[in-house]
């Protein structure tokens, strides 16, 4: 089974762990990744959601439970980020990977 997504580290935690100022970590992250740290956190969550959908998670569960399992605060935020990163809604994506 898929490993659960327990938490996504915050910028503050990462800066503390690496012993760098938070502002410097923010700058370096933006410079090298071309996205903000919070956008990257959402990307990781959506990537996990894609794995769950491919494994059949939505066959027996709701999109709300998928959003919660992927650590999103609510369904709306999940939908917005899913559509941003994937270009489809979760339901559209599931239908696309199900059809031959």
What are the SSEs and their pairings?
Blueprint: H1 11-18, H2 22-33, H3 37-54, H4 57-60, H5 63-69, H6 75-86, H7 90-98
Rg to the nearest angstrom?
A: 15 Å
Give the terminus-to-terminus CA distance.
Answer: 24 Å
Major sheet = none
- List the uncertain runs: none
Beta content: under 5%
Label the overall shape: elongated
> Helix-strand pattern, N to C?
HHHHHHH
- How many H/I helical runs? 7
Helix content: over 70%
How many β-strands, per DSSP? 0
Structural class: mainly alpha
What is the average per-residue confidence, as pLDDT, rounded to a whole number? Answer: 91
Description:
- The protein has 100 residues and is an all-alpha fold.
- Helices cover 70% and strands 0% of the residues.
- It is built from 7 helices and no strands.
- It has helices at 11-18, 22-33, 37-54, 57-60, 63-69, 75-86, 90-98.
- Helix 1 (11-18) packs across helix 2 (22-33).
- The two termini are 24 Å apart.
- 15% of the residues are buried.
- The model has no long low-confidence stretch (mean pLDDT 91).
């Amino acid at each position: 089974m898929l490993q659960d997504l327990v938490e996504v580290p915050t910028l503050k935690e990462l800066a503390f762990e690496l012993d760098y100022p938070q502002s410097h970590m923010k700058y370096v992250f933006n410079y090298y990744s071309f996205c903000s740290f919070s956008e990257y956190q959402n990307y990781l969550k959506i990537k996990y959601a894609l794995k769950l959908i491919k494994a059949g998670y939505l066959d027996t569960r709701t999109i709300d439970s998928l959003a919660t399992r992927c650590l999103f605060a609510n369904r709306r935020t999940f939908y917005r980020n899913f559509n941003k990163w994937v270009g489809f809604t979760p339901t559209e994506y599931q239908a696309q990977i199900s059809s031959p």
